[in-house]
């Protein structure tokens, strides 16, 4: 069965620190990959997505992610975090062009000024 | 563009009671999803509709959960009778298929259910 692993459950950073959140998936076929963000009190929003082409994708608010097929990974990065990035981040995958999203357990990011 | 609407936002019931949630997707979105998000976990798909037909309900506990999408627009999710382990946030999402066959899901604010 397909699965998504997010190894960092809770990350605490100071403003201006660099961020990398890990995401690994288990599926050998074609995948579409997503990062969603949930700010406190708000609904899930799409941060960025990878369907095909350049494996380095850029999203909103300065976030980017790199798809490394050989490692089954899609890690999220930001060079300098802000207090407003405090949120929960979810990695998700759908496979074989199905619509069903499989989510990871999420990573809670806290950024202190 | 209006987003996905859900109501109620919060609901507290006792076990063995019934409860219903409502979702109104983004206008024109043919596909509608219900997810269950238990505290500390990622959302898990319960059921997917394409227009008013069910595409995937493999993870819906059909002995107590039911969902319908009459007329292919609004949808309701019902739990009867509720159990303690049903305490979760119930998320509704909708999508339309983009060029190339890829879909992007838009989520509503969710309904937080507490079963006592």
Give your account of this protein's structure:
- The complex is a heterodimer of chains A (113) and B (116).
- Chain A has no helices and twelve strands.
- Chain A is an all-beta fold and 113 residues long.
- In chain A, a hairpin with a 4-residue loop joins strand 8 and strand 9.
- In chain B, strands 2, 4, 5, 6, 9, 10 and 11 form a seven-stranded mixed beta sheet that branches.
- In chain B, a hairpin with a 6-residue loop joins strand 4 (31-37) and strand 5 (44-50).
- The N and C termini of chain B lie far apart (37 Å).
- In chain B, 34% of the residues are buried.
- The interface between A and B is medium-sized, with 20 and 27 residues.
Q: How many E-type strands of chain B?
A: 11
Uncertain stretches of 5 or more adjacent residues of chain B: none
The N- to C-terminal Cα distance of chain B equals 37 Å
H/E element string of chain A? Answer: EEEEEEEEEEEE
Percent of residues of chain B in helical segments?
under 10%
Relevant terms:
heterodimer; A: 113 residues; mainly beta; six-stranded mixed beta sheet; four-stranded antiparallel beta sheet; 52% strand; globular; B: 116 residues; seven-stranded mixed beta sheet; 11 strands
């Amino acid at each position: 069965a397909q699965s998504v692993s997010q190894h960092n459950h809770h990350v605490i950073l100071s403003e201006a620190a660099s961020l990398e959140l890990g995401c690994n998936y288990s599926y050998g076929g074609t995948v579409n990959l997503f990062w969603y963000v949930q700010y406190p009190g708000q609904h899930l929003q799409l941060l960025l997505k990878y369907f095909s082409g350049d494996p380095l994708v850029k999203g909103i608010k300065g976030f980017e992610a790199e798809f490394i097929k050989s490692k089954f990974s899609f890690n999220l990065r930001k060079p300098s975090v802000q207090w407003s990035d405090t949120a929960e981040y979810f990695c998700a995958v759908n496979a074989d062009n199905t619509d069903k999203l499989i989510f990871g357990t999420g990573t809670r990011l806290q950024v202190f000024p | 563009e209006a987003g996905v609407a859900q109501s109620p936002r919060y609901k507290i019931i006792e076990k063995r009671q019934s409860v219903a949630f409502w979702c109104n997707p983004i206008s024109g979105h043919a596909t509608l999803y219900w997810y269950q998000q238990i505290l500390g976990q990622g959302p898990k798909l319960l059921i997917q509709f394409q227009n008013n037909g069910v595409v995937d309900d493999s993870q819906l506990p059909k002995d107590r959960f039911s969902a319908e999408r009459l007329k292919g627009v609004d949808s309701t999710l019902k739990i009867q009778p509720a159990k303690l382990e049903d305490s979760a946030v119930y998320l509704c999402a909708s999508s339309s298929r983009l060029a190339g066959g890829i879909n992007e899901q838009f989520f509503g604010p969710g309904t937080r259910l507490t079963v006592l």
